[in-house]
Amino acid sequence: MLWKNNQVFCNVPLPKADDRPLIVSHPGAHGNYLASWNVMVDHGEPFVLVCDDLGPAYPDGWWAQHSNNGMEYFARLQNPQGVGQAYRNPDLTFQNLLVHRGLEANKGMEDFPLIDIMYVDFIDIFLTHNGEPDWKPTFMAAAPKMVEKVRDGGVLIIDRKNVHEDYDQWLQFPEGEFEVSPGITLEHVGKGEWLILDVELNGGKNEIEAEVFRVSNSNSLGNPDDFLVTLMKERRLAPEDLEELKGTLPERWPEHPTHEEYCERLFNHYDHPNLFERPNYPEPLESSWKSEQYDEWLQWLIDHPDKLRSVERNERIMQMGNTKVRLVHGDILEHLDWLSLKNASLCVRRNLRVVCLEENIFLTKNAVNLQPFFNWKRPVANLIWSGPDATPNLTRELLRLSKSNVLATISHGLATLDELEAALIDYDGHVEELIIFHLDEVDYR
């Protein structure tokens, strides 16, 4: 609902976007991200909500709002590239994504190519105290920074949760359309009010009150697709890879209990209440997506390859004995999404293994730990990775340890085709495909 000049309108005039979700920024949100989330759910258009805060209130953190009537509301997804944690709700009928990034708000702003909706509840983060005793944060001083990335036709929303008599200057602005910086003007369109329809806000509030401004921006801004690919792994895959994903659902976050585990604990509690406690966490969602919605979205991406930024693989494929060999000239870290899609067993040394699993935790289940802390637990004794003194038959050792029928590793031993063929020519184990990444052009020639 929108109030303007004592008139009431049914809808708040929020923008829409063609062929992509709306990009919404809520800097310094902490627990109030639920307010901007509810506003976007009420809007009913596809959106991604990005909240940058040095102390993010992650939905799966113990102090945060993470459930709705005893049910898990946000299901965690694969982390965005760089920094952050991502979540979505599968029960909404439109695309949605919540991203929390542990970044200072102004630093986070640098990543946005453009913003459709800027949601602000504390304008001080856009200002620097100048040292004067009577200094006060004002709307006009903060406005240039607040809206510098907001596109033409976008909207600025100022939540009134922190507006009181000591901060009345937050809402002091000229009448009509006014310029805030070269090429950017604002126009106050009214006071917006939203009832809480989806997730209850922290503190028991049952409505959101905010001032709404329309943004006109004639400055050049970036390509939103380049930003969206950093948030969603599917946008970093090739169309043929997306075809393989159809008919599947994204896995739950590996460190979160599954719905099956929850039910088992709950039934154990019902059957033996003196032995088993009731689960002390919300009932988990089965997945972050509904199967039909996920397939529809994958097909949409396949039909719009211009929205994808797949990583090209410079590869050679050959057959050695019963094993398909794929030699990829490039950095393994650039292809982790693809390896996860292939359900590959990662088999590399400790330091690289740690980096890979930090980048993509979903590789953990099939990752081989070649160098555990205790020497006596190491599956390959006295491991030497490369060179003339490398562990004998190292390729065969890695094949033996693989936890799936696809093994992914990096160049090792002498890195020659002859050595590789000698290891594979009579191999008849469970590994059907061996993927080796190499950085040196001369390897495996």
How many runs of DSSP E, i.e. beta strands?
Answer: 19
Oligomer: single chain
Our count of helices gives 11
Query: How much strand?
Result: 15-25%
Looking at the structure, the CATH topology of the largest domain is Rossmann fold
Please tell me the CATH architecture of the largest domain by its name.
3-Layer(aba) Sandwich
Q: What structural class do you assign from the helix and strand content?
A: alpha/beta
Write down the CATH class of the largest domain.
Alpha Beta
Largest sheet geometry: 12 strands, mixed
Determine the mean pLDDT: 91
Shape: globular
Low-confidence stretches: none
Plain-language structure description:
With 445 residues, the chain is an alpha/beta fold. It has three domains: 2-225, Rossmann fold, CATH 3.40.50; 233-307, no CATH class; 315-438, no CATH class. Helices cover 22% and strands 23% of the residues. The protein has eleven helices and 19 strands. The strands form three sheets. Strands 1, 2, 3, 4, 7, 8, 9, 10, 11, 12, 13 and 14 form a twelve-stranded mixed beta sheet that branches. A hairpin with a 7-residue loop joins strand 8 and strand 9. Helix 5 (239-245) runs antiparallel to helix 7. The protein is globular and about 80 Å long. The chain starts with a strand and ends in a 7-residue tail after the last strand.
